[in-house]
Amino acid sequence: MTTQSRKSSSQEKQRREHRYLNPQGAEVKTRDEAFATLQDVSAEAVAVTAKLQLNNGATTFEMEIRFNPNTSPFVVTGGRITAGICGAPWDITGGSIGNQLRLDAKRAGQGSCANTITIVGQYQNPPSYRGTYGFDGSSSSFNHTTLYNG
Fold it and tell me: What is the mean pLDDT of the chain?
């Protein structure tokens, strides 16, 4: 092995040891740059969307939930109930998803409907929530099963 090949191998090893990547996978120059963006993350950057479908025999609500996947249980940061409920759409204002489900929403659409809805449930297998929901302060008026829907 020549001195030239040893030097080349040594330089390559040194480059590999000092390679830094940011959370998006882009190469940056320093370790500080790699972790700097973690401090500047907005709420939108940590939001994930899931579609849920609440079923109550004759009623089906289509929901799109935004939540923070870095919390446990997941904190619901927003979303919408888009169909199947009087006065749709409804804005989801908060809640959580984990071993238990809780969603709070207020009516954004028109009509002579309730103003708020609260949905609660307990996780079960296959992945779904079984529980109750109610309107204008109640959460136990109607039974439901809520499934993940894509």
Answer: 86
Strand pairing partners for 79? 65
CB 70 within 8 A of CB 48: no
Of 108, 76, 110, the residue nearest 93 (C-alpha):
76
Give the ranges where the chain is alpha helix by DSSP (H).
Answer: 3-17, 31-36
Poorest-confidence range of 39-48, 77-86, 122-131, 135-144? Answer: 39-48
Which DSSP symbol is given to 32?
Answer: H
Q: Return the closest-CA partner of residue 96 out of 117, 114, 61, 69.
A: 69
Query: The whole model's pTM is what?
Result: 0.73
Euclidean distance between CA atoms 102 and 94, whole angstroms: 8
Given a contact cutoff of 8 angstroms between Cβ atoms, the answer to whether 140 and 131 are in contact is: no
Chain CA centroid to CA 104, Å: 15
CA distances from 82 to 13, 15, 18, 55, 97 (A): 55, 52, 49, 14, 19
Structure tokens belonging to residue 50: 């899931």
Other CB atoms within 10 A of residue 144 CB: 22
Tell me if 103 sits within 8 A of 95, measured CB to CB. yes
